[in-house]
Structures are given as structure tokens and as C-alpha cells.
Amino acid sequence: MGIKKRSKVSAEFSMSSLTDIIFLLLIFFMLTSSLVAPNALNLKLPSSSRSSSPSSGQVEDVRISRSGNYFLDNRRRSLGDMENEIRRISRSSKPSITISPEKGTPTEHVVAIMDLAMRYKVNGVLATEKD
């Protein structure tokens, strides 16, 4: 009686299909990451230049109290009123504001004004006190 040998299962694995999938995923993530725009504020840091010309327009000062109150021309304003005022400022020739928060003001109040300035294309300068 003849005994037949069973065929052994090969333990080898083809890596070519796995590398194809990895390269396709790499290409996919490279393409999609370039389409994502960061949601960040465009900050203009001060720089030194010898040929600086003073701006001819008036620069409005927005003060922010520690409790979250907004002041423009020493008058208290709500955030909705500030949006209307910044929209009005944006219609001038060189729209600019300075943002002056008190020491210890929560960041979200400052960012709210910076967001309004960015939305209406008004140059905002953050003027803080030295620690």
C-alpha cells in the first residue's frame, strides 16, 4: 500500500501587493494634505525698517477689560457693536486698529476682535503691556 505525501503549505508571502497599497495610501494622503487650509490668524509681527512712513489715517484703539468688556473711543460696546464699528473702520483708506487688552484678559476676547479685524481686512496691532 502506497503512502502519499501531503503537500506542504508554503509560508511565503508576496509583498508586492502590500507595497502597492502603501504607495497608493501615501499618494492619497499627500494630495489631501495639500488641500487642507489651516484655520489660523495671519499675524503681522513688527519689523524694523528705516524708511517707514507714518500712516495718514487715524488708528482706532480697541481696549478689552479683564471681564471681557470692549471699549472703543472710551465707550463700552458689545461684540455686535464692535463688529459694526470695525466694518465702518474697514471703509477708510488705510483701516487700522490697535488691540489693547488688560493684563489677565482671557484670550478668547482678544481673538474675537482679531477675527473681526481679519474678516473685514483691517490691520490689527496687538499692543500688550510688558510683564
Protein model, in words:
By secondary structure, the protein is of the alpha/beta class. The protein has a domain at 60-126: 2-Layer Sandwich (Nucleotidyltransferase, domain 5). Helices cover 34% and strands 16% of the residues. The chain is built from three helices and five strands; from the N terminus they run H-E-E-E-H-E-H-E. The chain has helices at residues 16-35, 79-89, 107-119; strands at 60-64, 70-72, 75-77, 96-101, 123-126. A five-stranded mixed sheet has the order 3-2-1-4-5. Strand 4, helix 3 (107-119) and strand 5 form a beta-alpha-beta unit. Helix 2 runs parallel beside helix 3 (107-119). The chain is rod-shaped, with a radius of gyration of 30 Å.
Q: What are the defining features of this structure?
A:
alpha/beta, Nucleotidyltransferase, domain 5, 5-stranded mixed beta sheet, 16% strand, rod-shaped, 131 residues
